[in-house]
Amino acid sequence: MYKKKTFLFLFAAMILTSSGLPSLVHAQDGSTPDTPGTIDTYEGLPLCSPGVYYISPEDCISSGPSATLTHWAQQGMTLPLRPLPVSHPDISFTELDQKYAKLNLMPGVQASFFPNLDSAIANWGALSTLPIGQTLYITYTNVSYYDNNPYVTNARGEWIRASPTTYSTFQGFLFKQQPLNDFGWIIDAVNPFTDPSINAKRVNLSLNRGDVVQVYDKVEAEGTIWYMIKPGQWVDRNKIRVVTPSLSAPEGVDNGRWIEVNLFEQTLMVYEGDHLVFATLVATGYEPYYTQPGLFQIREKKELETMTGAFASGKTDYYLLENVPWTMYYDGPRALHGAYWRAMFGYEQSHGCINLSVGDSHWLYDWSQVGDWVYVWDPSGKTPTDPEFYKGSAAF
Fold first, then answer.
1. Where are the alpha helices (DSSP H) in the chain?
2. Is 257-390 in CATH node 3.20.20.450?
3. pTM
4. 134 in helix, strand or coil?
5. Which long-range contacts (CB under 8 A, 24 or more apart) does 31-34 make?
6. 3-state SS, residue 294
7. Residue 91 carries which DSSP code?
8. Residue 19 burial by CB count (10 A; 0-12/13-18/19+): exposed, middle or buried?
9. How far apart are CA 202 and CA 194, in angstroms?
10. Residue 62: its pLDDT value, please?
11. What would the pLDDT profile of 262-313 be if each residue is shown by its tens digit?
12. CA 191 to chain CA mean position, Å
């Protein structure tokens, strides 16, 4: 045990010595030597042993390694680093008793439903057709293949050419206790930099999409935001989505239960009594189909909901999404819901709704109640906030 502690101490000292952070020598009044009028600088006192000093000691100088350790501790970082106090919801939340298929269409061709498999293969004798669309998913009961092409039948016994699909099993985190610092998900493969600059050296460490990291510091440099995920490891915001737990509920929340959606970070957090209980990645609206910022309340919940419609003139972007799971309407046609057709979260992708993975939407559906608050905001200020912009718009 003694050898282990000695090794950790030496390891920490080496990191601190090479960290490049300034050594702060404080005068007895708490100011730095550069402060005009300061003449007492603890001259002659020894350097404090490396440690965390929230209150400046009187018998030694808390500079060098001690200043760095104290700075890190104030940001929630200790050596060794503490793990996040999290767990995933039960895997059963990702399970659905639905089978989904994507319609296979040539450009400009309408999807057709047929009375039997032979008719579907021959493309003759259609019972009905769908408008030409871009996002077409249906539910099915059985699948057959002809020349390696899949054909599915729906609950009405109709046949259509479509490919069975799977959906993402991504899950967010439940929190056993409040995290001491920010954290986030890596959304694209990256090797961290040693400093917050693209001109800095790369760290010999590969981070992949889905990896979870803690965030101990951030700076703005070179037109982006840089996050420190470990000493000497920095990642820019194009590769990460970060959760900053709120310390209090938004103005207007009166029941201690609220959902926060950060449009800039593409994250969703759930709070009870001002305590973070759940966090995950989402996909919200992209330009010009923004997700409206504001404070709303869940008004209706539906376990399964078929969504269909069009946005563009001529309805060339017609969509059909059968049996969308775990839908919670909160802002007119806009809802929180599962998105079985999404492979990745953390990017603006929807037509205004807040898309979650199937598992996350199921957990949120079970937790939420009609009347719970939904607070949507964009700290970057780029999303339109004028309610007139969102009148009459559809969403999915």
1. 2-17, 65-74, 117-122, 358-367
2. no
3. 0.83
4. strand
5. none
6. strand
7. G
8. middle
9. 6
10. 74
11. 999 999 999 998 899 999 999 999 999 999 999 999 999 999 999 998 876 6
12. 20
